[in-house]
Here is the input.
Amino acid sequence: MKNTIDAHVEFDYKGESHAPRMTLDLDALLTAEGAIPSIHVLLAKANGIDSYSYQYEVMQDSDIVFDNAHGLAADYLVDGLFDQTAFIAAWHDSKVLGLLQPIAQRELGIADFAQHPELKNALLQAYRLGANSIR
Here is the structure.
């Protein structure tokens, strides 16, 4: 399932209320950027707000509210707050498990890591150890 979430801010500028909003494709952002860029910057670009304007500075002082999360992102959205750090870690783990699952199936006959949480944890730790040892 695709990982998406809606982000918006509300602020007043020059006597007018503004509420820029956008839907973030988290899979595309993480695949292309390796991280989630500044949401304020993304909102400004998507809503035609110049990042060198005073309006942008006012927008930056406003808290971002998140809603309408789909996929894995839904697990990290609570009361309008999105735990990006935890989501990114889980997203990477999900990608790694997708690579490890066929190996577990082929070598151990295990088709579902949910039934073997200890093995899932051990394989993730081994993957991380290997990834960190080559840096």
Q: What stands out?
A: Residues 100 and 123 are 8 Å apart (CA to CA).
